[in-house]
Amino acid sequence: MGEMANDVEVPTFKGEGTKAKVIFEELARLLPTHGEAIVSKVQAVFLFKVFNHGVYNRPTAQSQYAFWVLDLKNGSGTVRQTDKSEPCDLMFFGSDDNFENIMTGLQNPPVEFFRGHFVAKGKSYLLAKLRELKPLHADIRAKL
User: Which InterPro entries does the record cross-reference, listed alphabetically (predicted)?
Assistant: First the structure.
């Protein structure tokens, strides 16, 4: 069973065919060697709910979404996929395309949040901390 998102039932899936899955796989590869410096600056756990059809924070009736946890609070950081919402410092809800633009440095997370391009719940000031991933942007873009 899926969850409700903006009054539309959105079934969950594993992220197959999404840019988000590629980005998280690349983050999982890069964090063991680059994560310690990032974790020391960020100190937060993010939950990402990314949907595959629709724009900004508005899924369509055909949308499905996947959940990932990005732990930038412990060790050198970790990425893992989950099948439901979990406790976190900040939850991101948005489209695959919008997520790609934020995680590759093409969009500024706080600016896009205030434009309404995605939903953030929790400690919204942590959106600015996503910019600490900047040293990884080139490697992430190369995988897309």
Answer: SCP2_sterol-bd_dom, SCP2_sterol-bd_dom_sf
